[in-house]
Amino acid sequence: MDIISFLLDFILHVDKHLEAFVQSYGVWVYALLFLIIFVETGLVVMPFLPGDSLLFVVGALCGAGLMSYPVAVSVLLLAAVLGDQCNFTIGRYFGPKVFKWENSRLFNKAAFDRTHNFYERYGGITIILARFMPFLRTFAPFVAGVAAMSRVKFTLFNVAGAVIWVLGICTAGFFLGSIPWVKVNLDKIIWAMILVPGLIVLFGAWKARNQPVT
Q1: Domain range for residue 105?
Q2: How far is residue 27's CA from residue 157's CA, in Å, rounded to a whole number?
Q3: Largest Cα–Cα distance of the chain, in whole Å?
Q4: pLDDT tens-digit profile of 157-212?
Q5: How many domains does the chain have?
Q6: What is the pLDDT of residue 210?
Q7: I want to staple 174 with a disulfide (CB 3.0 to 4.6 A). Which of 63, 146, 148, 207 is the partner?
């Protein structure tokens, strides 16, 4: 099995892979969880890794007694916060380099000014809501960095969003994961957690692209 096939299988059957990893490697699962969430939120080139579905499955495994809920949530919170901070820092680092090209076709000063103003005004709620949207979760902190959003403001909403995201979905998995119907249909739930937010993002992007310029 090549790496792409393995990643696809892992994303679609994250429950089975995580349970097998716990049984084989025990506490090392927490290191794996940290790595996945940190990379998914911290590297703009890795938006396809599991996020919402992973958190739900972790909560379900904690509810089944296979993992520690306090440890898992703490590790995931740390990974989510540090991942967004890393992504934001990358955006802040590359942003000024791009902005030097004001006379090039790659730089649009008016677009940058609009993005900067947007993030200063609505960046907080954007960072929080993006936590629940695949792809946007990865790109929002990077764009916030490029747009030169205040680091203090970003950090405040980064932590708030991470707490709501991790605690909300892990807790839902903890209490709902043991319900027989949920256990039987977990694969469908994972598909829904991947496709539904993704379709919302695509619709929003399509609508924004086709909106008349004023």
Answers
A1: 3-210
A2: 30
A3: 61
A4: 999 999 999 999 999 999 988 888 887 777 777 767 766 665 665 555 555 555 55
A5: 1
A6: 59
A7: 63
